[in-house]
Amino acid sequence: xxxxxxxxxxxxxxxxxxxxxxxxxxxxxxxxxxxxxxxxxxxxxxxxxxxxxxxxxxxxxxxxxxxxxxxxxxxxxxxxxxxxxxxxxxxxxxxxxxxxxxxxxxxxxxxxxx
Length: 114
Prior knowledge:
Residues 27-105 form the Carboxymuconolactone decarboxylase-like domain. This is Carboxymuconolactone decarboxylase family protein. This protein has helices at 3-20, 24-36, 44-58, 61-73, 78-92, 97-113. By secondary structure, it is mainly alpha-helical.
């Protein structure tokens, strides 16, 4: 199983378990997240790259992978994603570099898969 399949399988499996608990607060939060990234005044591509930059600054590898996948699906190019990486690094500083390495690895997996 490759990096992308492993991430998506684990995420799906755990989300199913979480949603099976039928907790109203958790379900509402998940729904809020889904609706935040839906088409609106900003298009999906723009929202996903914003989410990616924020995830880099917060140093959340799972979030970075998720937004990389969604950005790739939305048609973000390699040049564009590296500009987003640069924004994340400028805002987050050098502590973002290890997350950048893993992000580049994941992006290359997406390119090779697509």
